[in-house]
Structure formats: structure tokens, C-alpha cells
Amino acid sequence: MALRSLSLPLLVLVGVALRESCLGTSSHFLKYFFTSISDPSQAEPHFVSLGYVDDQLFNYYDSNSRKFQPRVPWIEKVGKEDPQYWERSTQTCRGEEESFRDRLEILRTLYNHSGLNTLQKMIVCELRGDGSKGGFLQYGYEGRTFITFDKETLTWVAPEPQARIIQRKWDAIPGYNQGQKAYLEEECIEWIKKYLSYRKGALLRTEPPEVTVSSKTEVEDGMEMHVCRLHGFYPREIDASWTRDGEVWLQDTLRGSVAPNADGTFHAWLSIQIDPKERGRYQCHVEHNGLQEPLDVALKEPKSNVGIIIGCVVVGLALLGVIVGIWFFKRHHDYKKAPTTDRRSSSSSQGSDQTA
Predict the structure, then answer these.
(1) SS (H, E, C) 24-85
(2) pTM of the model
(3) Helix and strand counts by DSSP (H, E) for the chain
(4) Residue 158: C-alpha distances to residues 10, 16, 110, 150, 167 (Å)
(5) How many Å apart are CA 297 and CA 356, to the nearest integer?
(6) d(C-alpha 164, C-alpha 128), whole Å
(7) Contact 286, 247 (CB under 8 A)
(8) Between 20 and 30 A from 307 (CA), which of 155, 158, 221, 258?
(9) Which of 109 and 315 is assigned the larger pLDDT?
């Protein structure tokens, strides 16, 4: 229940930050998302932490595992050069989890809330192409902005009365706001540079897409649905389309968004609905930096049930033959044994009569 309730506000928060990162291609971002949600059925709130380099999820932590975990192969290089990295990061996340538990309880008291309640935190720092820096720190409660740090004025901005209580408290802590600014403009930026250096090999490589086409027949109108799946490609940019007679065909097509895989590559799909009589006119056309030349994949014939039926019949006949063979053998064996048994019985009877 907690995970389902957690998903919507978390996705909204992640979506906003990822959208912001698309505004400038020359910029690089380090983003952290922390979410804690109270659940009346659980003794403790459920906590999740996600870390992104640009649009790539590279680490994960939750209150179930309570362990900082990698999500891409290249991040494991950090641990090889800094053996304490994983333990230190785990302890940091555990500290955030405890802090969120206390702050969520405070907010529930301030708002007189009970039941399912959500507290979130978003940290984003930016290294621009011209060397300048940007970033922000923001808390959200119940899916709304609760309080935001202004690193230029070194103050917290609170839109609601309940948030102003927290604002006055944090602004009064000596050195607290200066520490937030230093993290956004110094430490966080250094981590961007470090992570980018580890990811450099992955960024320079190209992985061609694995392209497969599957099909099924729509019974309602006899039309065929074909799906072209693109998997394991890098970089993210890819041009894929359905063509008819060599020309791009957009009619009756659907397209899924490009999404990341756990290993840092990407996957996508696009489908088309066609008249089976025109199947030979269509192809899935793919262009990508990992391909030496554009790839065209023809549509496949839908799998027929005839082969399956024939196979089942053959297997059934073979099984029937085995059963008949076993029955015949057993019957024949019993037939041969029967006279022997009778003779032994007769002999035994005769012996008994003689003894008597």
C-alpha cells in the first residue's frame, strides 16, 4: 500500500527535475530524490532515495534493504577507488531516513494529519557548459511545495504558515544555510565531475539496438498488430519508424517513449496495425549511431495454430502408441504366466492329494 501511494508524488517530483535537465544539453546534473510516507499499517514510514546523473538512475536506497545500492555498472568503479564509499553512502541515507521520520511526524502534528502522509526532498545541482553553477533544494509535503532554500539570499522560502515555523527554526541555526549553499555549489559539483569521469567510458561507447518484430492477429476486424522492439542501445538518441513501400508511415501507429535499462542502455517500441494482405509493404526502419547503416526489419508472418495443432496430434498419437504398447505387453506377459501358475497349482494339488 505504501509503495503504491508513494509512486505518484515521487514520479511527479522526478519528472519535474528530469524535465528541467532537458532545457540545456550542455549542462550536467546531479539529482537526489528522498521520499518518506507514513502508513498506518506499518510501525515506521517507508523511505526511498534515488540518485540520478543527468537522466540516468545510478543509485538506490530504501527502508527495506537499508543499503545503498548501485544501479549502473560504472558506479562500481567508485567503490574500487574509494573502499569506504558504499558504507559511507549507506550511513548517509540512514541518517536521512531518520531525519525524514522525525520531520514527517512534526508536519503531521502541525497539520493535524493522520493516515497516509508524504514528505519529499529534492536536491539538484547543475554544472553548465560555460562552467557556471546552479542548483536548488526543496521540500514537498503531500505533493505540494512546502519549503525551498534560496541559496542567493541564504534563507528559506515558506509559502504556508506551518512552513514558516520550520523556516524560522532553520534560518536561526548558525552556519546551517551556509552549509546548504556550500554543498550545492561546491561538494555537489565536485561529485558531478567525479561521476562524469567514471561514466566517460560509457558515454563514449555506442551500443547498437537489438531489433525484433512480433505480431498478432486482431480477431475483431482481422487486422494485424505488429510491434517493433528496440533494446540495449546507447546513446539514447535513436530514429525508428514504420515505413510503407520505403516511405515513413504514421497512420495507425503507436510509439513508446525511450526508457533506460539497468545497465545504462535504453529500450523503446513502436507498433502498427495493418491489413494482412499488405504485410509485405511494411518494414521497421531504424537509424542509430551504433549501426553502420540503417536497419530495415521486415514483418513476420503471424504464427499459425496449425503447426501447434499438428504437433499436439503427433504427441497425442505417440503417447497413445506407448500406452497401447504397454497394455499389449502386459496382457501378453500375463497370458504367458497364467498356464505356468495353473500347472504349479495342479501339481501342488496332486501332491497334497497323494500326501493325504
Answers:
(1) CCCCEEEEEEEEEECCCCCCCCEEEEEEEECCEEEEEEECCCCCCEECCHHHHHHHHHCCCH
(2) 0.59
(3) 7, 17
(4) 21, 20, 14, 11, 6
(5) 94
(6) 32
(7) no
(8) 221
(9) 109
